[in-house]
Amino acid sequence: MRIALTSLLTALLAACGIEPLRAPEIPEPQAYTATPPTLEVAGASGQAFAPGADIPAQWWALYRSPSLDRLVRAALDDSPTLARAAAKLRGAEAALASRQDAALPKVDAKLHANRVDVKPESLGARQLPVEMPLNLYLASVNVSYTLDLFGATRSDLEALRATVDYDRYELQAARQMLAGNVVTTAVRAASLRAQIAEAERALDLQARQLAIVEQLEKSGGVAKVDVVARREELARSRAALPELRRDLELARHRLAIYAGRPPGAADLVEPSFDELQLPHDLPVSVPSALVRQRADVLAAEALLREAGARVGVATANLYPQVTLTATAGSLSTSGSGLFSSGTGFYLLGASLVQPIFHGDELQAKRRAAVAAYDQAAAAYREAILAAFQNVADTLRALEADAAKVKERTEAAEAGRAYEVIVAARHAAGGVSELALLEAQRRRYLARADEVRALADRHADSAALFQAMGGGWWNAPPAR
Fold this sequence. Notes:
The chain is α+β, with helices and mostly antiparallel strands. The protein has nine helices and six strands, in the order αβααββααβααββαα. α2 (66-78) packs across α4 and α2 crosses α5. 29% of the residues are buried.
């Protein structure tokens, strides 16, 4: 007994001397970028940063496109990715509910009926005090409860709650990722359709120019080398068109998959490029609020809490475990007299289990849990830094988009003005039809460049809404 008590005291003192966990260092920058980003470009308008503004849950509605809204809703309703994440969340919730019930006292009812036959000779007696064989009936109720003196059950429940939170935030992150992917893919598809239309117009003009040059070459008006050069330029322009059409089909395939449909689904209505309207106000949350808005950062925090709870479980396993038991019942040789007077009994008991010598097993398990906690802390810090980088990169991309759109728009306007001038001179007989066709072709090419620049601005605007968290906290409660 003295050896056992000494070992118990030694184990308790060793457990009390365990160092606490180190909280992770959370970055707290005052700004996302070294210099404030701006969309104020001379001659450009249409967007502005809104510091501190809240994000609507259905932020894609700011594009004011019914077709885009239907695409996003279809994806959120039928995506198999979201269905898988939702099922995982339900499983985690069920596991938590099961463990919560398991922490309550356990009550079991038992009923036994046995036939017993013993030979007196086997016991060295001529006869027994009761006649053999006999029927033995036993009815009992057992109650057991393990005291959570050192927090093993509490820590285990906290780990399961953190798992539920992680799966919930992962579902939200998947929803925001899906909505962002649908918007950017729809914008790209609309942009590709517009670019294909402009490219086809330009190719038609190039073909007409080539026909004119070929007629001039027959009459000796131009050299053979000019005809060959025109043919080479037309062939090069035509070679770019299949690539645009391929990219458009790939974008349509992705949209169908996002909506949970086969790639060949033909009932998805895609928005046209002119239908999309650029969101004017772009909300920019302060860095301290970002970590509470990004679902992926909150998911990493939940994993950190789970790892900390697992350390608590491993620590509690170093301490004694006390279980209380109680049994009440009735024992009789007659089924009809099972609950009669004088057949009842009860048992009360308590057990204590204290690890005395397991080698280094229990301490090693705790060190492994602490290492897992440190890993989760580093992952949490990494998730925060990645979120800050994501926002910073998107802000700089939008800043570059503003300047690029300004230049492309000015080039497109200049192309249209040049075409008007050349058309007037052609009507007056001052320039040839070949020059007019060239002016028209340059206008179409400038418009295609403008469409690409505008598409980048649309996509980066969607990326900013997603980088800021997507406004999921403003969504109505799920049914």
